[in-house]
Design a protein that fits this description.
Strand order of the largest sheet: 1-2-9-8-7-6-5
Pfam families: HamA (PF08878)
Number of domains: 1
Largest sheet: 7 strands, mixed
Structural class: alpha/beta
Helix content: 40-55%
Number of helices: 12
Protein name: DUF1837 domain-containing protein
C-alpha cells in the first residue's frame, strides 16, 4: 500500500525518537475524507485473525468486510471508545516500519461492544532469524496536554514485571497457530525466556493525537505551515522525553495533529456503519 502520511519530522538522534506526521491537505482542506478511506483499507487485517485473512478472497469478500466492521463495535457511545485510535496506530506503524500484525485484539473480544485491555497493538518486525516485538500504546485525544501524562502513566504501569508476564500469557493464548511466525513469537513470550532477553527485542510505538490550532489556520502544506508544525512537534517531543525520564524499552513516538478529532471520529463512524450494512 502506498504511503499516505506526510512525515514532517523524523528525529532519530535520540530515544525516544520522533515521527511528526500529518494527513496533509487537498483542495484547501485537511484530508479528512481521504484519511478515513485510507484507514479502512487496514480494517480487515486489524479486525480479523491470520486464518481468516488467509481465506480472504472474492467469494467471501463481502461477508468478511461486514464481519471486520461489525467486530469493531456497534455501540452508539463511539465517541468515548479507543478502537479508532488503535486502527490509526496499526496503519501508521505498518506504513512507517513495515510491521507485521501478530494478534488482532478486536478478534478476541467477548462481544461487539466490549473493550479489550492490554497493549493497543501487537505487531512484530523480522530481524533476520528473530522477531522484534512491537507493543503499542495510543492516546486518541483532543488535548495533547492530557495525552502526554496519561500515556506516560500507562507506559510505566505496563512494564511492571507482573503485568508483562501476565500479558504475555494472554497474548500467547491468542496467537493463531496457522500464522507463519507463530512458533517464533511463542518462544519469545515463553515464561522461561528471561524478560531481559525479551526487552532487548521489544519496543513500544506510542501514538498521540490532538487537535492542533496550527492545522486549523492553514489550508496548504506551505513553508510557513511546515515550520510551525515542526516547531510544535519538537516542543512536544522534548516535553515527552523530559516527563518520561529513563525508560528500559525503546520507544518510538508518533505525533498526529487532527483537525479535529470530533470531525474525524464522526466520519469514521459513518463509514463503519456503511460497512456493517454491506
Amino acid at each position: 500500500m502506498r504511503r499516505f502520511f506526510n512525515v514532517i519530522v523524523h528525529k532519530n538522534d535520540e530515544i525516544p525518537d520522533l515521527h511528526g506526521l500529518c494527513a496533509g491537505f487537498e483542495n484547501k482542506s485537511w484530508r479528512l475524507e481521504q484519511l478515513v478511506d485510507y484507514l479502512f483499507n487496514y480494517l480487515p487485517e486489524f479486525s480479523l485473525n491470520q486464518t481468516e485473512l488467509s481465506e480472504f478472497n472474492s467469494l467471501n469478500l463481502i461477508p468478511n468486510i461486514r464481519k471486520a466492521a461489525s467486530s469493531v463495535y456497534q455501540s452508539d457511545k463511539f465517541r468515548n471508545r479507543g478502537e479508532f485510535g488503535e486502527l490509526l496506530l496499526h496503519a501508521i506503524i505498518r506504513e512507517t516500519h513495515n510491521t507485521i500484525p501478530a494478534i488482532s485484539k478486536i478478534f478476541y473480544k467477548d462481544g461487539p461492544n466490549e473493550t479489550v485491555k492490554g497493549f493497543d497493538a501487537v505487531h512484530v518486525v523480522e530481524k533476520g532469524e528473530s522477531l522484534e516485538l512491537w507493543l503499542g500504546e495510543v492516546k486518541f485525544y483532543q488535548s495533547i496536554s492530557s495525552a502526554i501524562p496519561d500515556v506516560i502513566k500507562e507506559l510505566k504501569e505496563h512494564i511492571e514485571i507482573r503485568y508483562v508476564k501476565n500479558e504475555f500469557i494472554t497474548l500467547t493464548n491468542k496467537i493463531d497457530r496457522n500464522w507463519e511466525h507463530a512458533n517464533k513469537l511463542k518462544r519469545l513470550l515463553d515464561p522461561t525466556t528471561s524478560l531481559d532477553d525479551v526487552f532487548e527485542n521489544t519496543c513500544i510505538p506510542v501514538l498521540l493525537t490532538y487537535d492542533s490550532k496550527i492545522l486549523q489556520k492553514h489550508e496548504k502544506k506551505t513553508d510557513e505551515y511546515i515550520a510551525e508544525i515542526e516547531a510544535e512537534f519538537l516542543k512536544l517531543h522534548k516535553k515527552f522525553c523530559t516527563d518520561l525520564g529513563d525508560f528500559p524499552l525503546t520507544i518510538h513516538l508518533f505525533l498526529l495533529p487532527l483537525n479535529t478529532k470530533k470531525e474525524l471520529i464522526t466520519k469514521l463512524e459513518e463509514k463503519l456503519k456503511v460497512w456493517q450494512k454491506i
